[in-house]
Amino acid sequence: KYFWIILFLAASPVLLAVEADLRPSQPMAGEVFQLLLTGSDQYPAPEKLPEVKGIQGLTNSTSRSYRNINGQASYTLGIAAIAARPGTYQIPSFPVKTGKKKREMTPAISQ
After folding, report:
1. Nearest-angstrom CA–CA distance, 27 and 80
2. Cis (ω within 30 of 0) for the bond into 44?
């Protein structure tokens, strides 16, 4: 009885979040910055990028990086954008895919 419970828990999928960050965190007007999406099992793939007031557009220009520190993997997708004005930006949560799974990205706020 207990063996099956343990086996079920070990085989159940872990829900992993996709975190977002802006770099630099306070972009100046006309400056190119990146929206960084980081997942722990595969590269995040946004289905559709949101429109954000003050950002001239999240572009198709991307970068990818992979890190593995002490067995903890992270996959980061960087999406280039241009700030139309200086100030604080808030990128709302939006759906992304990691492999066959669909997840909600955490909102990103420039600080």
Report:
1. 12
2. no
The confidence score (pLDDT) of residue 10 equals 37
Token pair recorded at residue 57: 């557009």
**pTM value?**
0.74
* 3-state helix/strand/coil string of 15-54: CCCEEEEEECCCCCCCCEEEEEEEECCCCCEECCCCCCCC
Write down the mean pLDDT value for the chain: 77
Cα(23)–Cα(110) distance, integer angstroms: 8
Q: Are strands 32-39 and 95-98 parallel, antiparallel or unpaired?
A: unpaired
Q: In what order do the strands lie in the sheet with 101-104?
A: 45-46, 95-98, 101-104
Hey, which of 28-32, 60-64, 106-110 has the most confident mean pLDDT? 28-32
